[in-house]
């Protein structure tokens, strides 16, 4: 059975400096895998690099934009590891 993965933002941690207010520097996220019968979730935290020129005000951030930052920071290998861990849990006999 196919697994659907849903990424979501759980919490943003921000700070301010002399240039910007509410600079997001840590994103707490969750990935939920759903096989149509069971669901498994994994959580994590990702630090973000300081913005250098393309700053988006905190109030204008979208979940999609923040998740793009997280996934870009994690890279394809880590994304596959997270989703693979979910898949492994969903497909184990003891879990079902």
This entry's quaternary arrangement is: single chain
- Rounded to the nearest angstrom, the radius of gyration is 16 Å
The helicity comes to 25-40%
Q: Name the average pLDDT.
A: 92
Unreliable stretches:
none
Strand content: 25-35%
Question: What does the overall shape look like?
Answer: elongated
Kindly report how far apart the N and C termini lie.
13 Å
State the secondary-structure class: alpha+beta
List keywords for this structure.
three-stranded antiparallel β-sheet, 1 helix, 96 residues, 3 strands, alpha+beta
Describe this structure in words.
Strand 1 and strand 2 form a beta hairpin. Helix content is 30%, strand content 34%. The chain has a three-stranded antiparallel β-sheet. The protein has 96 residues and is α+β, with helices and mostly antiparallel strands.
List the helices and strands and how they pair.
Elements: E1 4-15, E2 23-34, E3 39-47, H1 63-91
Antiparallel strand pairs: 1-2, 2-3
Quick synopsis:
30% of the residues lie in helices and 34% in strands. The protein has 96 residues and is an alpha+beta fold.
């Amino acid at each position: 059975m196919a697994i659907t993965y849903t990424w979501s933002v759980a919490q943003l941690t921000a700070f301010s400096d002399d240039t910007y207010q509410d600079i997001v520097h840590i994103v707490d996220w969750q990935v939920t895998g759903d096989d149509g019968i069971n669901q498994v979730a994994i959580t994590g935290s990702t630090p973000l690099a300081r913005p250098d020129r393309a700053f988006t005000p905190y109030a204008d951030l979208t979940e999609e934009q923040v998740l793009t930052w997280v996934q870009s920071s994690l890279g394809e290998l880590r994304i596959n590891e997270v989703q693979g861990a979910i898949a492994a849990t969903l497909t184990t006999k003891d879990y079902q």
